[in-house]
Amino acid sequence: MNILCPVEKNKEYIMAIDDIGNDGEGIGKIDGFTVFVKDALPNEKIEVLITKVKKNYAYGRLMEIIEVSKSRVKPICKNYKLCGGCNIQHLLYDEQLSFKTKKVKDALERIGGFTDVPVKNTIGMENSFNYRNKAQFPVGKNNGKTVIGFYSPRSHNIVDIESCCIQNEINDKVIKIIRQFMDGEKISAYDENTGKGLIRHILTKVGFVSGEKLVCIVINGNSIPQKEKLIDRLKDIEGLTGIVLNINKQNTNVILGKEIKVLWGRGYITDYIGDIKFEISVHSFFQVNPVQTRILYSKALELAGLTGNENVLDIYCGIGTISLFLAQKAKKVVGVEIVEQAIKDAKRNAEINGIKNAEFIAGPAEKVIPEIYNEGFVADTVVVDPPRKGCDIAVLNTIINMKPKRIVYVSCDPSTMARDVKILCENGFELNEVQPVDQFCHTTHVESVIMMTYCGKEAKNEG
């Protein structure tokens, strides 16, 4: 170890926490040497056990809080430390919102070079619990008993749960019924190590407006023994519209296979964002927080500034959620998405809403967008809602060549968003507004919607 390093592994120290990192960890210094401590908060004095030492920083385990931050609250989840899903539940909710605003601003400054960033305060929720409309529970066995829950941090060890405070309450009933059924009928659970066992995951979807509910059981096989008993127990759940099997026999960490079998009812739920109705199947991507999604999409529509005369290009459109929102105010919307089933869903959703000015194209955005541009399609407004990795460079280059009047960028990752915005703003666009929205309360994740306008000159991203 470097003799100049002031800390040693497996030794305890007293330190002050000054800041909070991107993953919610406390940050402080010991004799000028940076130490990251999970579960610690700014303005706390703590005792820390050093667990790992790197060249320029170290990691530590919180042993005792000597002086407690006024922003610390007691987590309501009894599995909080074991599960790790809500990794900032110990932070006062208003402070969580401030943390997320800072996270977006810091990424734009550090990665994008924007020194005067117009970031608004993160929009939070009135009730920050039980907000998720989708759950995925891995299934396993422990000492012969069925366990259903979530993976503990950085592992595939399942934390058995009875209730999750950010999921819809219906999940408590579903996993209880399936756990009792598996134990009673001696139904095996899938073992990742051997590739044997039947039930792999339980997936649920809930319509917050419609009240409809769907249960999907992912299996390593073709059927479930005594399935009629399970159907009888599940179908009495209020609002349940369907029970389906998903067949996944692959040795993979991918949760869903391609084949779906409907055991009871139908294979989808319906729900609404504003006045737009959506059919949501097992494979459909749909934002997990419907309350905040309405706020997010309404903001995207506002920032698009549509008058009814615009051609709009919606890149990474999914099942058409944003496209159909925009179609209400646009001349024409073209949505592009790589997942063919999502495009089928988007076309179906346009049909059931009577929307005729939306067109959807299946294919990789980096191929389709240059093709339709070369064929003569030019958008007045471009909307992008990319995956966590951000936009492909071919997509960004085509947008730059297309020179739309406005770009609305919806992001789930501040770092890749900042990278993409920097490229756009170095090629004729100007950053006008950034609005973070708390889609994932009590976690470190944050959604943002950004508006840029074409100004025909190099961006003012140097301050």
CATH topology tier name of the largest domain:
Rossmann fold
Strand content: 25-35%
Global outline: globular
CATH architectural category of the largest domain: 3-Layer(aba) Sandwich
Helix content: 10-25%
- How far is the first residue's CA from the last residue's CA? 41 Å
Largest sheet: 7 strands, mixed
| Top-tier CATH class of the largest domain | Alpha Beta
- Kindly report the average pLDDT value: 93
In total, the number of strands is 21
**Assembly classification:** single chain
Assign the CATH superfamily of the largest domain.
Answer: Vaccinia Virus protein VP39
Question: What is the total number of structural domains?
Answer: 3
Structural class estimated from helices and strands: alpha/beta
Strand order of the largest sheet: 8-7-6-9-10-11-12
Radius of gyration: 24 Å
Unreliable stretches covering 5 or more consecutive residues: 459-463
Number of helices: 10
Descriptive notes:
The C terminus is likely disordered. This protein is 24% helix and 31% strand. The two termini are 41 Å apart. With 463 residues, the chain is an alpha/beta fold. A seven-stranded mixed sheet has the order 8-7-6-9-10-11-12. It has a seven-stranded mixed sheet with strand order 17-16-15-18-19-21-20, sandwiched between helices. A five-stranded mixed beta barrel has the order 1-2-3-5-4. The longest helix has 18 residues. The chain has ten helices and 21 strands. It folds into three domains: 61 residues, Nucleic acid-binding proteins (OB fold (Dihydrolipoamide Acetyltransferase, E2P), Beta Barrel), CATH 2.40.50; 191 residues, Vaccinia Virus protein VP39 (Rossmann fold, 3-Layer(aba) Sandwich); 140 residues, OB fold (Dihydrolipoamide Acetyltransferase, E2P). Helix 2 runs parallel beside helix 10 and helix 3 packs antiparallel against helix 4.
